[in-house]
Specification:
The chain is mainly α. Helix content is about 65%, strand content about 0%.
Length: about 150
């Protein structure tokens, strides 16, 4: 039973290696290494949570081949990524570029965190201020009514 579990776990760990097909691999190890690095930075348009390096979707295969074609043609890494982005949009990048409207994405997290901290600070400060004000003394009528309630 334990061997079956270990076999299943080892097969699950090797699944991403099945995505790149043997006919996609470039003969030059340096170019292949660059292609693998680039394909880990690009998101599969179908799977959305996987890189094209890990995905078995047909479009991921096309993208892997396209990246390899660009590298063989002599493109730099940035030129190959730019070519894919020109074709499919910035959605395929796992890390959107910090330019244009993407600044909203990059700044939204820190701004929201600072806003939450400010709201928390104001809340705690106002709560402390409420607790620091001494309670007003009871009037004589209120004191007598309280005593009568306590006796009953």
């Amino acid at each position: 039973m334990m061997r079956a579990i270990l076999l299943c776990l080892s097969l699950l760990m090797a699944m991403p290696a099945w995505a790149v097909q043997p006919d996609e691999i470039l003969p030059d190890p340096a170019l292949e290494s660059r292609a693998r690095d680039l394909s880990r930075q690009l998101r599969c348009p179908v799977c959305q949570g996987e890189s094209i390096d890990d995905s078995n979707a047909p479009i991921s295969r096309d993208l892997r081949l396209y990246v390899r074609e660009r590298l063989v043609a002599g493109d730099t890494d940035q030129q190959a990524i730019d070519a894919v982005v020109d074709r499919y949009g910035e959605f395929v990048l796992f890390e959107p570029r910090a330019s244009g409207m993407n600044w909203v994405l990059w700044l939204a997290g820190p701004v929201m965190a600072l806003t939450a901290l400010l709201i928390g600070w104001v809340f705690l400060r106002s709560r402390r201020m409420r607790n620091e004000t001494p309670p007003e003394d009871l009037t004589e009528a209120e004191r007598e009514r309280l005593n009568s309630i306590m006796r009953d």
